[in-house]
């Protein structure tokens, strides 16, 4: 159509973050014509957008990195135990330059629609710049926490101060000096930014709806000896990670129930983990912290006691001590001085569970009961339309009349988190039904992408050009994902894993929590069996 650029590709990739970039590298290496379309003005995805103060990965930097190139992992030096957002973005840019990935990324381009033409057997993507892209396969690498959500508060448009969302942070940064600041939200983003904003603001009000559990990160400069040892063992460690539930090696598997230990033993075990820092190791104290409420209570109570011992004002301490979900069933936060921040006299915690935010006013906000707060700046750390948000924003349909929005109206349906029945040749990286968000994400990204690469190679060797999951295989997988979740404590929390933070979103548990190891074995078995559960066919339609 008039003046539109028509690009023909083997594989169109939506997203230029860690997943999209690795997909370019991997598939280009197979001789495929690929291109990624990225809405941002530069690559990096999550690490491009989330520039709020204190943004940092909660997986250790030696783990949270690509494993596909040993040279890369040997050369790169992480300065701290946990990577900061700027450091991780620098790393991503280094990878893109090192492997010459940029030439296949089109920036400033948001994919608006994706239509599968079942006769032509290809996808047509349109973008907000008017591009029309035809591709035999489409890979959705659009992220799990990439659709920022500002709650629909009345009055926001008339607010006279400045406001920001953690996931849409201005590149020039924000100076909070002398400002009266309100932070809404106490998930990982709030917990990371609050201590830093508190040091700048004249006064900080934190509006908390749900108290979250947070453990000390114990961030520190990288220990050179630890780095040397880790690097010497890198290939073996990466292989070992494949046999762990979180895709991270080095945490010995627990062997006994919390209920088999005496109270004194438990206390000593939790205290050791608290001092060591890190969330996985803490949850790995015993076998059953995420499956047995009574066992979990012992760990939850340990952290509540820590909060009470740190926070001086007893009323604030009680508000901060989470009581409505078991520890670990919402993303467990890691912090640097979070609870201590509430001992500052320029910080006030406001409970917006008992008295919700009613409206934003020109000068601040007012709660439902009428209490007004004067604010110069409001920061929304209110999270994302997680896991399905990015795909919900793209109009995905087929010429047979199916739309993904309809198909997923009752919650996302996938086979292995990778594909959706009725949407051939569309592959999702770390989609709902995959363990992605419950793992070291980059390991999942590599595993999914490698599986897809293997699949495309299989198809090309066998003269096949269409793949889609069978409805029964998809239904069985969805049921398995649910059954596994139901055997744990996860469904007890109103978390973004369940879509609970988005009004009207169907309440369905989205990540696969059966472990990365079990998932990978299943994916490998499916491939080895000739792609059991998938229908692979030859349409013979011309692909130019
Ligand atoms: P999260 O974890 O979804 O946290 C969002 C926070 O915002 C959470 O405390 C919410 O309370 C709160 N929130 C959301 N809407 C409101 C309203 N209307 N009023 C008051 N408070 C509200 O997002 P993050 O960005 O912190 O972290 C996302 C993930 O990124 C994290 O898990 C890591 O994996 C990295 P709620 O709990 O819903 O009551």
TrEMBL record:
Mind telling me which Gene3D superfamilies this protein's record contains?
Answer: FAD/NAD(P)-binding domain (3.50.50.60)
Show the PANTHER family listed in the entry: L-ORNITHINE N(5)-MONOOXYGENASE-RELATED (PTHR43098)
Annotated membrane-spanning segments are 5-24
Q: Which UniProt keywords apply?
A: FAD, Flavoprotein, Membrane, Monooxygenase, NADP, Oxidoreductase, Transmembrane, Transmembrane helix
Q: Which Pfam families does the record match to this protein?
A: FMO-like
Can you name this protein?
Cyclohexanone monooxygenase
Q: Which cofactor(s) does the record list?
A: FAD
The UniProt similarity line reads: Belongs to the FAD-binding monooxygenase family.
* UniProt cross-references to SUPFAM superfamilies, sorted A to Z: FAD/NAD(P)-binding domain
Q: List GO molecular-function terms, semicolon-separated.
A: flavin adenine dinucleotide binding; N,N-dimethylaniline monooxygenase activity; NADP binding
* Domain of life from the UniProt record: Bacteria
Q: Which InterPro entries does the UniProt record give?
A: FAD-binding_Monooxygenases, FAD/NAD-bd_sf, Flavin_mOase-like
């Amino acid at each position: 159509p008039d003046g539109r650029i028509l690009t023909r590709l083997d594989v169109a990739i939506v997203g230029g973050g860690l997943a999209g970039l690795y997909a370019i590298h991997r598939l280009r290496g197979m001789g495929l014509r690929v291109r990624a379309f990225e809405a941002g003005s530069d690559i990096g995805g999550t690490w491009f957008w989330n520039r709020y103060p204190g943004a940092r990965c909660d997986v250790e930097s030696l783990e949270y990195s690509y494993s596909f190139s040993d040279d890369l992992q040997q050369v790169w030096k992480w300065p701290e135990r946990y990577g900061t957002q700027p450091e991780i973005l620098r790393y991503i840019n280094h990878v893109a330059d090192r492997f010459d990935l940029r030439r296949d990324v089109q920036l400033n381009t948001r994919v608006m629609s994706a239509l599968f033409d079942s006769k032509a057997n290809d996808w047509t993507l349109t973008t907000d710049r008017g591009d029309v892209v035809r591709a035999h396969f489409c890979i959705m690498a659009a992220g799990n926490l990439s659709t920022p959500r500002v709650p629909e508060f009345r009055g926001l448009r008339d607010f006279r101060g400045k406001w920001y969302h953690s996931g849409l942070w201005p590149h020039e940064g924000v100076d909070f000096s002398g400002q009266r600041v309100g932070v809404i939200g106490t998930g990982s983003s709030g917990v990371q930014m609050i201590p830093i904003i508190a040091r700048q603001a004249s006064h900080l009000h934190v509006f908390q709806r749900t108290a979250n559990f947070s453990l000390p990160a114990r961030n520190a400069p990288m220990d050179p000896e630890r780095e040397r040892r880790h690097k010497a063992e890198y290939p073996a460690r990466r292989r070992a990670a494949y046999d762990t539930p979180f895709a991270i090696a080095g945490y010995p598997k627990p062997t006994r129930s919390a209920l088999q230990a005496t109270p004194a033993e438990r206390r000593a075990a939790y205290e050791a983990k608290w001092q060591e820092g890190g969330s996985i190791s803490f949850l790995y104290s015993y076998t059953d912290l995420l499956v047995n409420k009574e066992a979990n209570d012992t760990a939850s109570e340990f952290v509540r006691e820590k909060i009470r011992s740190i926070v001086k004002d007893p009323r604030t301490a009680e508000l901060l001590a989470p009581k409505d979900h078991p520890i670990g069933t919402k993303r467990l936060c890691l912090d640097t001085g979070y609870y201590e921040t509430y001992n500052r006299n320029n910080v006030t915690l406001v409970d917006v569970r008992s008295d919700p935010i009613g409206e934003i006013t020109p000068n601040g906000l007012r709660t439902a009961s009428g209490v007004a707060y004067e604010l110069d700046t409001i920061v929304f750390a209110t999270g994302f339309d997680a896991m399905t948000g990015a795909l919900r924003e793209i109009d995905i349909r087929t010429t047979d009349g199916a739309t993904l929005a309809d198909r997923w109206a009752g919650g996302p349906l996938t086979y292995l988190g990778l594909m959706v029945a009725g949407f051939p040749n569309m592959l999702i990286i770390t989609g709902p039904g995959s363990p992605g968000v419950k793992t070291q994400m980059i390991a999942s990204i590599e595993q999914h992408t490698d599986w897809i690469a293997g699949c495309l190679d299989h198809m090309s060797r066998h003269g096949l050009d269409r793949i889609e999951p069978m409805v029964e295989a998809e239904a069985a997988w969805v049921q398995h994902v649910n059954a596994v979740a139901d055997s744990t404590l996860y469904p007890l929390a109103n978390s973004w894993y369940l879509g609970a933070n988005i009004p009207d979103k169907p309440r369905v548990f989205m990540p696969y929590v059966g472990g990365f190891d079990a998932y990978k074995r299943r994916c490998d078995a499916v491939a080895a069996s000739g792609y059991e559960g998938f229908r692979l066919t030859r349409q013979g339609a011309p692909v130019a």
